[in-house]
Write a structure and sequence with these properties.
Blueprint: H1 9-12, E1 17-18, E2 30-32, E3 38-40, E4 44-45, E5 81-83, E6 86-87, E7 102-114, E8 122-127, E9 133-139, E10 143-150, E11 159-161, E12 188-194, E13 199-205, E14 216-222, E15 231-241, H2 246-258, E16 268-271, E17 286-290, E18 295-302, E19 309-313, E20 318-323, E21 326-333, E22 339-341, E23 346-352, E24 359-366, E25 378-384, H3 421-424, E26 426-436, E27 443-449, H4 462-468, E28 479-482, E29 488-495, E30 505-509, E31 514-521, E32 539-541, E33 543-546, E34 550-557, E35 562-568, H5 571-575, E36 579-584, H6 594-609
Parallel strand pairs: 7-10, 9-14, 15-18, 17-25, 26-29, 28-36
Antiparallel strand pairs: 1-4, 2-3, 5-6, 7-8, 10-12, 11-13, 13-14, 15-16, 18-23, 19-22, 19-24, 20-21, 20-23, 24-25, 26-27, 29-34, 30-33, 30-35, 31-32, 31-34, 35-36
The structure holds 2-acetamido-2-deoxy-beta-D-glucopyranose (6 copies).
Length: 620
């Protein structure tokens, strides 16, 4: 979104926070609005505090067996097995199967209309004409080859495969301005990568906030699992939905801000791409059939642009078996409690259909403790086979508290060394800045990580600097070089209390699953913090929540040469600069094919020369 839109929607959701006090005083806060008029930036928002309530309970004791027999085969009662020496106990960072199979998909992005909840058709950008986009499915160890054609008239695009490690394929990470030039209208690009991990994820445009227009779909990579189940129900994406385009919402957010008004609420929530409209006069509920007595795997994916969501199925427990691409020790979220998800996160759960018969509501509520809310929560109907589908009469508690899900213990235990923490740890400060923005020379308020905003040039990605052996990276590339392979690096993302309102941010890293050593409120003292961190068996994933007004301590090993973005996954925030890029072991990067890379760039440059709309944000 335009840099001008100071804050993301979720920020505005928070009560009693005056923004003016967070913005550097020695600058006048003027910026050009989209109409070219100078407007005064006003800053007041509302917020509620983050209560610490946990929505889950105990860890199932049935997971005590750590090692699956590598020779056993996968089946309903042996999901921990896979075959050919691979199982849930394999360290997939070190070893993964090579099946020799190539699975190919063709995705075409078009500018069209959609109407997922019956409210009326609106402008959308879709993949192969469907919303959400098609599910990409492969097996652990397969090579995925995905051809993306940009059939939009007036925008570039690029597609990021969220959570995919991209080992030896950094050029397929899909980030315009970092790993590629965007794909120009009419052009196509081939992405190719090996599935070194398994589980559930999604893919989405990484071209400004374009995924909010509908350019996203789901990914399933079949492999072993830490819980047994009989039936795989498949993916179940959940997202916030706006009746305006993502671009219009951003403009409205900006305009509201001028009058110190909060941004618009999302109009609806969608489950698997559908819901009734808020008046319940049109649209339809997603409907899922359960087979009595069977265990069902459901793959929940948060594909929102802004809102925090809480999930429950009335009358049923949900056993969480994985968080992002990391299998975990099964965690039971009991009936009456709620599973919490931040943007970009995934949880695979097992639902035991032990209620015999009936219709049950499945609920995806915007967590009002985390955000301003929504004009409508989402419902879906889960029906036992043999029961006639009807609107359920079941009830549930309301979700409470705004905290990241706790109790996520990786199945494959891996400790993080603590002895190098104090010498290696680096703080990445997160704050609002006033910076002169290169795209239009104006002083604008932006989000900064590591003291400055990120702002890339689409026509000169980091990969181009590597091809040119040119190390004069612009400071706006927010480059953090990690030249040494095989070491542990430690990062404390710290909200600077004087310069940022106390709001949570979902922090996502490309190319790695980071280890979440700890998080807290207030200011972390780097010289003493290590004593309070978990180095023994920390949660591991690719997205974690930075608590409002607090810090998040992360670690990862430099075991994947490449150029990797780390950013806030609130679409408006990365658009406004909230990210850094790690350039990891640059001399060992497996570079993309230079001819194909340069072709994409030369087509992009020709389009950019006559582009109908200007770049007005970080581009990411
Ligand atoms: C989509 O189509 C509309 C007209 O219906 C046009 O104004 C807009 O520029 C197009 N956007 C893109 C990205 O092609
Ligand atoms: C993308 O297209 C939309 C119209 O559909 C336009 O408003 C927007 O400015 C375009 N963005 C870029 C960077 O081309
Ligand atoms: C989600 O929607 C797709 C497309 O309509 C459908 O094929 C799939 O079965 C649905 N998933 C579930 C879990 O119902
Ligand atoms: C999706 O992520 C956003 C941003 O972190 C979060 O606000 C929302 O609750 C999440 N939704 C779900 C279903 O987890
Ligand atoms: C949920 O799990 C708890 C303990 O883990 C168990 O006592 C209870 O019967 C389960 N409820 C259902 C509906 O399966
Ligand atoms: C290196 O990159 C900088 C910044 O883009 C550019 O000004 C300079 O000309 C480049 N140097 C070479 C030798 O290409």
């Amino acid at each position: 979104m335009q840099l001008k839109s100071l804050v993301g929607l979720c920020l505005l959701a928070f009560a009693s926070v005056s923004w003016a006090e967070y913005i550097p005083q020695n600058h006048f806060l003027w910026g050009e609005n989209r109409m070219g008029k100078l407007v005064r930036r006003a800053t007041t928002v509302t917020s509620s505090s983050t209560a610490a309530a946990t929505s889950t309970s105990s860890i199932a004791s049935s997971s005590s067996v750590r090692v699956a027999d590598p020779s056993c085969t996968n089946g309903p009662l042996s999901r921990a097995c896979w075959g050919n020496g691979y199982s849930i106990a394999t360290d997939f960072d070190q070893k993964s199967p090579t099946t020799g199979n190539t699975v190919t998909y063709n995705l075409e992005i078009t500018n069209t209309t959609c109407n997922p909840d019956g409210n009326g058709a609106k402008l959308c950008m879709l993949i192969n004409g469907v919303f959400p986009g098609p599910t990409i499915r492969a097996k652990w160890g397969d090579q995925l080859v995905i051809n993306v054609k940009n059939s939009l008239q007036d925008n570039g695009t690029s597609v990021h495969w969220h959570g995919i490690r991209q080992l030896s394929s950094s050029g397929s990470d899909g980030v315009g301005g970092i790993t590629e030039c965007p794909i120009a209208p009419g052009d196509s690009k081939q992405y190719s990568f090996r599935c070194t991990q398994y589980g559930t994820s999604w893919y989405h445009s990484h071209f400004s906030s374009q995924y909010g227009e509908g350019i996203f779909g789901t990914i399933v990579i079949d492999g072993p699992a830490s819980s047994n189940y009989d039936i795989d129900l498949g993916v179940y994406p959940i997202n916030d939905w706006y009746y305006q385009t993502a671009l219009q919402v951003n403009m409205e957010t900006f305009n509201n801000l001028q009058n110190t008004a909060p941004p618009p609420n999302a109009d609806n929530m969608l489950i698997n791409g559908t819901n009734m409209n808020p008046g319940k006069t049109a649209g339809k509920y997603s409907q899922v059939t359960l087979t009595p007595g069977k265990k069902h795997r459901l793959r929940l994916i948060n594909t929102s642009v802004d809102n925090f969501i809480s999930i429950a199925l009335d009358g049923h427990n949900m056993t969480v078996m994985s968080a992002d691409f990391i299998p975990i020790q099964p965690l039971v979220v009991q009936s009456g409690q709620w599973l919490q998800m931040a943007i970009g996160m995934r949880y695979d759960v097992v639902i035991n259909a032990n209620q015999g018969s009936g219709n049950f509501w499945f609920r995806a509520n915007v967590n009002t403790a985390c955000s301003s809310g929504n004009n409508n929560n989402a419902l879906a109907i889960f029906t036992y086979s043999g029961t006639t589908v009807a609107n359920p009469t079941t009830t549930n508690t309301s979700p409470s508290g705004c905290n990241d899900q706790t109790g996520l213990i990786p199945y494959w235990k891996q400790a993080v060394p603590s002895d190098t923490f104090n010498s290696q740890v680096k703080e990445l400060s997160l704050q609002l800045n006033v910076e002169q923005v290169t795209t239009n020379g104006a002083n604008l308020v932006v989000w900064a990580l590591d003291t400055t905003m990120i702002n890339i040039a689409w026509d000169k990605p980091t990969m181009q600097y590597l091809f040119d052996k040119n190390t004069s990276y612009p400071s706006t590339y927010s480059m953090i070089e990690l030249p040494t392979e095989g070491i542990w690096t430690y990062w404390v993302v710290q909200e600077v209390s004087a310069r940022s309102p106390p709001i949570p941010h979902p922090i996502h890293l490309h190319g790695h699953d980071f280890f979440v050593l700890g998080s807290g409120t207030g200011t972390a003292d780097l010289s003493t913090i290590s004593g309070s961190l978990n180095f023994v068996n920390p949660a591991r994933r690719d997205t974690a929540s930075l608590p409002g007004g607090g810090w998040l301590a992360l670690a990862f090993q430099t075991n994947n040469p490449g150029a990797w973005l780390m950013h806030c996954h609130i679409a408006w925030h990365i658009s406004e600069g909230l990210g850094v890029q790690f350039l990891e072991a640059k001399d060992s990067i497996a570079m993309p094919d230079q001819t194909a890379f340069s072709n994409t760039c030369s087509k992009w440059k020709s389009f950019m020369a006559k582009m109908p709309y200007a770049k007005e944000d970080s581009g990411l």
